[in-house]
C-alpha cells in the first residue's frame, strides 16, 4: 500500500501506477511520482522505452514512409543529426496525413498500443510537441533550467529538465528547438540551435527577420506553426547569415533566398589597406592615456560611452526610458558572454553588481552553479575535427636572429606581411583553414569587450604580426593561451597607468619593453592610422584603443617567446 496525497488514502501499487497523471494529478513531492525531478533517472528509462516504441510505430505508419526511410539513410550516414531531427519531427509529430491526423495522433487513436501507463503520459506530451525559442534566465542545478519562450512570452518562465542542456547553456542566450510539456517540467527533444544576436539585432529580432524573409508570418502563433514545417530551412538560413556576416566583404557572396539583407546592414567593412608611407615612431594617440580600461575586469565600463547606447554611458542610459531597451540588450550580452567565458575557462566572475547599479532588476538572476568546463562554442583548434590542425604540418619558418630586429628588418618583414593577401577575408580564410588558435583565443579574451569593428581591426593587425614570424605556408608559433591572457592583463594594467607616469615617457618605455619594439612601432602606427581614417559609420571607441594596443603587444611578445622556445 502507498499513501496517496491526492486520493487522501492509502492505495494499491497497481492503482498508483495506472492512475498517476491520468486519474490523479500527482504532486511532485510524492515519492512514487516517476515524473518528479527527484525521479529523473527513472523517468529517463521510461522515456527511452517509449521513444523506441514510438520510432517503430513511426517507421511503419508515417504518411510518406519511403521519404522517411530515405531521410534516415542519407542524413544518418552524413552525420546531419540536426537536420534529421527536424525531418523526424515533421514526419512523426507535425505532418497531418490524408486522414486528418498526424502519425503520432493515429497511434493515440489506436490507444498507444504496446505502451505502459507512464509511457502513454510521455507520448501524450509528444502529441503537443512544439517549436520554441527559449531565452534562458536561470540555470538552477545540473539538470534544470528556467527559461521563457520568445514565441509565447505571456506564458512566463517555466522549467526545462535536461542534463545536457543545463550543462551547456548560459543566461540570456537564446536556443531554438523542439519541446514537449510534462506534468512538472518541459523536455527538449533532441539538440537545439543557438540563436545569436548581433551588434544591432537582438536574437528575437534575428528570429523575426529570418522568418519574415523566408515567407513566414509576423505573429508569434503563426511563426510557431510555420516552424513546424520549416524549422530546417530556418536553421539553414541562420547558418547562412552567420557565414555571410563573417565574410561580409567577400563581394557579398551569399544566397539572397536565405539571408535577409537587413541582418547584414551593420557588418563592418573589412577593407585591408596596405600603407607603405614612412610612419612616425611613438605614434600613439592621446586617447589611450585617458581610457584606463582593464581587460577581464569591469572597472569603468559603466562610465564608458557605448555605441549601442547611442554613445551614452550605461549609467546615463539607465536614466533615459527611451534607451532602456537598448541597455537591457547590452546587459544581456554582457551576462551571457561572462557566463560563457566562465563555462569555458572554469572562472566564476559575477557581474550582477552591474545589474544592480543600473537598476535592471528584471535581469537579476543568480549566476549558474559550478559546472564542468565546456569547450568553446567556436573551437578553432580543431579539437572537434579529425586529426591535428593543419598549421602543425607546415614547414618551419625562417630562423630568428639572436637579437631584436633592426628598423630596416622590421620594415621589410612588415611590408611583406601586409602585402601577403589581397584582402582581409583572404587572410582570415587562410588562418581559419589552418585552424590556428590565436584568433579564437583573442576572441575568447576580448570578444565581449570589443565590438565587431574593433575586433576586426585587432585580428587584421594580429595577422600581420603572425606573418612576420611565419610567412605564408610556414608554421606559426605554438603558444600558451594562458600566457597570452596573462600578458594581455598585465599590459592593460600598465597602459591604464600611463596618465600617472606621463604619456610620452610611459608610452616610450612601454614600447622599449616589447620584445620587438621596431616592429611594434610599425604595427601600432598603421593600426591607429587605419582606425583614424575609418569611415564614419565604423564604430571605434576611444576606450577600445588601449585594449587593441595591449592585445597587439601581448600577441607580439607571446609569439616571439614561442618562436624562440623561451619559457
Describe the structure.
The chain is an alpha+beta fold and 567 residues long. It is 48% helix and 7% strand. It has 22 helices and 8 strands. The strands form 2 sheets. Strands 3, 4, 5, 6, 7 and 8 form a 6-stranded antiparallel sheet that branches. A two-stranded antiparallel sheet has the order 1-2. Strand 4 (144-149) and strand 5 form a beta hairpin. Residues 268-298 and 377-386 have low confidence and may be disordered.
* Unreliable residue runs: 268-298, 377-386
Helix content: 40-55%
**What is the number of beta strands?**
8
H/E element order: EEHHHHHHEEEHEEEHHHHHHHHHHHHHHH
List the helices and strands and how they pair.
Blueprint: E1 2-4, E2 9-11, H1 13-19, H2 40-61, H3 65-78, H4 81-94, H5 103-109, H6 117-127, E3 130-139, E4 144-149, E5 158-161, H7 163-168, E6 174-181, E7 186-188, E8 193-195, H8 203-213, H9 220-246, H10 287-291, H11 314-318, H12 324-345, H13 352-358, H14 407-418, H15 424-434, H16 438-446, H17 452-469, H18 481-495, H19 498-501, H20 503-513, H21 517-532, H22 545-563
Antiparallel strand pairs: 1-2, 3-4, 3-6, 4-5, 6-7, 6-8
Helix pairs in contact: 2-5, 2-6, 3-4, 4-9, 14-17, 14-21, 17-21, 17-22, 18-22, 21-22
